[in-house]
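haha ok so turns out i had the wrong file open the whole time. this is the CORRECT one, sorry everyone. sequence first:
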Amino acid sequence: MRTWSPALPAGESAHALLAARMPEVVPALGDAAFGPRLLQAVAATLPVASFSIYRTGARPAIFISGSLGVPDTTRDCWRAYLSGPVQHDRTFRDGEAAPLRMCHITAGEVPPEHRAKVYDAHGVRERVSVVEREASADGALFAVNFYRHEGQRPLADGQLADFGEAGALLMALARKHVVLASPPQESTGQAQRLLAQCPELTQRELEVCLRLLRGMTQEGIAADLGLALPTVKTYRNRAFARLGIHFRSELFALMLEAGEGAVAAR
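then structure:
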């Protein structure tokens, strides 16, 4: 495994090619299209087929992931990682003094349990990451990861150097996307009010209702949540049935009444 600090660009390179793709990536910040466009931009310069953006620590979370040209098993990899390997993973810990680090590791360097559950089970052969320490007591790390799969040529030293030049840019984009894609504070209050009205709402039903309240179309919700449109409609209908309503306008009215009730109770 190798770790190093990201360097500044040094002339024409794959870094320049990646930078040239940014006009396609930046407008998608905060949208469902961001992940696919970011992966396409990086895959144009590196032989990688999947990616993930996640945080480790006391409350691990995966924010976005996806694949290009291979079956998307990134969420399966994440669940496998949390099933045990995360407890003993030290691959991001080298160079802990540096706030921003690059990390490159091959499947053969990963501990046996981690390799078997995450790498070998899903055809992953190599990972290159940009890692930044979180300002938290649990030592959490925020990581932007790209993975080479079986059948792809190995990452060359020159490509890794180019990736290092782009490290700070990739981290900044990932951080900004996570902030923009996070539900606003208003959604948190709406979720609490919806659950107070109907504790039986499932997580997916709640997510669909919150997006309806934000003015999103059902097609937009499907794209945002990575679901088929009929599935979104099913969650909407189930949620409305639980809430005793039939139309989006009634959902807004329900939230207005709940908000007024909360104010009156203070």
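Strands lie at 2-4, 50-55, 61-67, 100-106, 124-133, 141-149.
again sry for the mixup
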